Amino acid sequence: MASQPSTSSTDKTTQQSLHFQKAITEKRKKEITDAIVEFIALDMRPINVVEGEGFKQLMKKMEPGYVLPKRSSISQALSLKYSDLQDQVSALIENSSALSLTTDIWTSLNMEAYMSVTCHFINQEWELCNFVLATKAMEVSHTGVHIAQLLGEVAESFAIPNYKRVAVVHDNASNMKLSTETLKKEPEKWGNVQGVFCSGHTLQLCINSALKQDRIRRTISAARNLVGHFKKSAKATIALKDKQKQQNVVEHSLTQDIATRWNSTCEMLDRLLEQRWPVTAVLSDPSITKKGDRTLDLSTEQWKLAQDLVEVLRPLITLTEVLSQEEHVSLSSAVPMLFNLKKRHLSLEEEDETPAIREMKKTLITEIDNRWQLLTMEPKSIYLLSSALDQRFKHLKFLQNDMRNLVYTEVVHLAEHLHQQQAVPGEEKEQAAGGEEEPEAPPHKKRRQQEISMLMQSDEEEEEHNESSAAKEMEQYLKDTTKVQSGPLTWWKQNSDRYPKLAFAAKYCLCVPATSTPSERIFSKAGYIVNKTRSSLLPENVNKLVFLAHNMKKV
């Protein structure tokens, strides 16, 4: 019989095991705690996840000697990481020459309103950077004045000087419009900031108007009912799969649209057209479909109109996707693409178009012109300035000669203004951007300074000034035939030394996104932590978690 280990030997082994488990260094403890904090932040988990029994068991298996911190300790660690990351983002903003903001308001499942703010700028390497700045609880009414106040608080919390604030991108809501109008009345705080409507939302409004036409509305409604029939009937859905196999049609499910999303309506019609003949086969089979449901099939005219609708709408989806790109310059493309859309896609020259489609195109053209003010846009509009500074569109062929030259003049003025600001340190920059100016020197002193400057100036200095003027740069820039390889920022990175003053204007104008999508994208992540099971989460913690989740991997 094998000998049994003595009790004293077993106790000794247990003690050694316990001693081994406790042998965890302070460095290792900190690494694990930091990893837990990152897990909570990146996956947008509620802080009380550390109190869950499953999480405790997991940590015990992973690192038996690690004592899980209390919820309050994790909360403190999150606050420290938030503070450190906020300092890093602030440093990057400080090193930028100009930035734009996007903002939007959303409501959680708990009916708590939040306003998100993101910033966008071009760094020294000519890379487009974007960060979430804040997710602020809207504790009072959502007035334009209050929105402007919150935007000011966010900008101040990151020490963004007024001369760097280029634009605020927002949707078309009246309170958002009022907020930027309010900001424009405070040049000492906001410089020459412009309000920019979200192109995605604006295009949605244009399309919504075009889809209200009676024949189009009835066709979409019929398509919606048809898809709904298959969604509600398991028998019809199974039969559809059989018909798809018989007819060798790709086995896709039908797609139900969301009434508030026009692109989903296009996707619904597109999928229905793809599955037209299997769908028709199911509806016409009396062993599958009741007699009363067979009338759900679209008429020949409706199938034709659905096809035409998809052909009109599909390029608009592409346009929306291009303008919503967060990692690439987008605003400079907006106006040139809209003009191309009108000229090449919404042309009324097609003779075989149905009256409904012609009317739809007319409505789209009118809506686009009015909502973007394409025919009355001012030369100093950030839309046109950014297009002029994008090598792909710099010739502004969509504008009349007089208007084109006015835009170029505005670019030159902006470039000279920004160049001068870079030479003016500290507080003087803010004064140059719209704040109070220092009292002018007395006339006799001012005259003496000018006389000394004139006497001291050399021919070389005068020649250098003339040669490097923004107007001279603009002239050469417009003649430049250097091709764009990978977008406007790559072009400017390669050519900024040749056009140093225009480069300042390029960073200023090209940092503005065409849509407020960056702020809207916060909803999906933020909504995960602000729901019915996490109602005790304080707004300040929502702000910290969203900030960390979006920014941690960007610095």
Strand order of the largest sheet: 3-2-1-4-5
Total of DSSP H or I helical runs spanning 4+ residues = 26
Distance between the termini: 66 Å
* Inertia-based shape: flat
Number of strands: 5
| Estimated share of beta-strand residues | 5-15%
Q: Give the fraction of residues assigned to helices.
A: 55-70%
pLDDT averaged over residues:
88
| Class inferred from helices and paired strands | alpha/beta
Radius of gyration: 31 Å
How many distinct domains? 3
Q: Which residue ranges are poorly predicted, with pLDDT under 50 across at least 5 consecutive positions? A: 13-19, 434-438, 460-467
Largest sheet: 5 strands, mixed
Question: Please, could you describe this protein's structure?
Answer:
Residues 473-552 form the HAT C-terminal dimerisation domain. InterPro entries: HATC_C_dom (IPR008906), RNaseH-like_sf (IPR012337), ZnF_BED_domain_contain (IPR052035). The protein has 555 residues and is α/β, with parallel strands linked by helices. It folds into three domains: 85-198 and 516-554, Nucleotidyltransferase, domain 5; 206-370, no CATH class; 377-424 and 485-512, no CATH class. It is 59% helix and 7% strand. Helix 2 (26-42) packs across helix 4, helix 9 (214-232) packs across helix 11 (262-274) and helix 11 packs across helix 13.
